Amino acid sequence: MTEPGKIEPRSAPRTSISGWRTAPAARVLAVAMALATAAGPAAVTPAQAQGRAMPIIRDTEIEQLLRDYAQPILKAAGLAKQNVKVVVLNDRAFNAFVMDGRHIFINTGALFDAKTPNEVIGVFAHETGHLAGGHLLKLREQLATAQTASIVALLLGVGAAVAGARAGSGGGDIGAAAIMAPQQAIQRTLLAYVRTQEDSADHAGAKFLNATGQSGRGMLELFKRLSSESMFNSRFIDPYMQSHPMPAERVAALDTLVRASPHFNAKDPDALQARHDMMRAKLSGFLERPDTVARRYPLGDHSMPARYARAISAYRHSDLRQAVAQIDALIAAQPANPYFYELKGQALLEGGRAAEAVAPLRQAVQLSRNAPLIQIMLGQALIGTNNKQTAEEAVALLRSALLREPEAPEAYSQLAMAYGRKGDLAQADLASAQAAFNRGDMVTARQLASRAKTRLPIGTPAWVQADDIVNLKPNAKN
Asked: Does residue 111 lie within any of the structural domains?
């Protein structure tokens, strides 16, 4: 949800370094080289990822659940203090990967397809294995070696081609072979190295699951499902030209590994499974077509996840009045659930009824203990009332939210509007510049920051912030 609580699909490339998808070797090599090169020493932030066309979804309920999944694993891996964040991408393909040492990216496809919390936790355990093993840095080193060898092989092949052409009668074909053979050998070596990393991450993930008293069954069941799919797709692919260990071998090795754990038969707590089912229902309601939601959650299904999905789908695609009635029924069933109040406020706000959205969003903020994304939405509702008195409250809410979400462009945009309602044009310009900066639009950011400087007292903290944006180097956001 680019706008807090709102899922907005965007187009994006479907790529991965580590994890759970198989692909022809040439594509995997190109992807691995591109991502490993892009993921330099600087961390990739969600805001930067959004600027690079990654379709990021923001939602308090989903993010809190995924944090609860990931934290025990990260602690077992010794990464609890590294502030590793889970970022959800709106991509229906099953995938999870790491691009730096501070984020685990997971596709909505993985969350849709994982039937239990343990399956997602298994994904996180595997990806944490990559983080703990320093695999990305090692892969960059391996790529540097491979690129050097590739250049040398290419030069030798070109030399052979020139010599062959001068000799005539097919010499050029010999030169082409001299170019291709070393390239394929280098590619095989690199992909074999990536397969080794995947196997290592499997072992590390199993160790982390065992250390936290959790079963590896979910990881195993997930591998089995993916294996049956990839077996068909990879029948005609050279098994040595795959980035992952060959599916049957990988599943067999993992089966032996996780069954040896004393926690293999451990079950997910019922409350955690319920939250997982609600997450999947929420994703369905926001991302799937109404007819798909109706088939997945038919009217005869009176479970909370089914009612949740249908209520979301109704407000997104149908009658707002009917949707609000369904959400009110959810609130009556679980009056302490902050996300039902958030949903009602969002439906009313997007339905053009900002004043009515304020009360449920206040309740959502209170019940969620001031979740910043919900605070931002409440701020937006307050601004939407077009009341100068509520603009002051909106400024306080948005500034509070930005302390914990400092890279949220939408929050800065709303803050600019709140300052505009108050008539504080200098602060409005500065907030607009910060919004543009966090969207990656440096031209607009500098223009607005320059204008803010002319309106702000020289030397004040706000003036310094504007000056920093004006004088920022072009590549500083990257």
From this structure: yes
Same domain, 198 and 251: yes
pLDDT of residue 346: 97
Predicted confidence (pLDDT) at residue 460 exceeds the cutoff of 90? yes
Looking at the domain assignment, is residue 78 inside a domain?
yes
Same domain? 317 vs 228: no
In a domain, 108, yes or no: yes
Inside any domain, residue 85: yes
Kindly report whether the global pTM for this prediction surpasses the value 0.70.
Answer: yes
- Provide the domain limits for residue 295: 270-335
Residues 159 and 302 grouped into a single domain = no
Give per-residue pLDDT as tens, 342-375: 999 999 999 999 999 999 999 999 999 999 999 9
Tally of domains in the chain: 2
SS (H, E, C) the chain: CCCCCCCCCCCCCCCCCCCCCCCCHHHHHHHHHHHHHHCCCCCCCHHHHHHCCCCEECCHHHHHHHHHHHHHHHHHCCCHHHCCEEEEECCCCCCEEECCCCEEEEEHHHHHHCCCHHHHHHHHHHHHHHHHCCHHHHHHHHHHHHHHHHHHHHHHHHHHHHHHHHHCCCHHHHHHHHHHHHHHHHHHHHHHHHHHHHHHHHHHHHHHHHHCCCCCHHHHHHHHHHHHHHHHHCCCCCHHHCCCCCHHHHHHHHHHHHHCCCCCCCCCCHHHHHHHHHHHHHHHHHHCCHHHHHHHCCCCCCCHHHHHHHHHHHHHHCCHHHHHHHHHHHHHHCCCCHHHHHHHHHHHHHCCCHHHHHHHHHHHHHHCCCCHHHHHHHHHHHHHCCCHHHHHHHHHHHHHHHHHCCCCHHHHHHHHHHHHHHCCHHHHHHHHHHHHHHHCCHHHHHHHHHHHHHHCCCCCHHHHHHHHHHCCCCCCCC
Rounded to an integer, the average pLDDT of 205-221 is 95
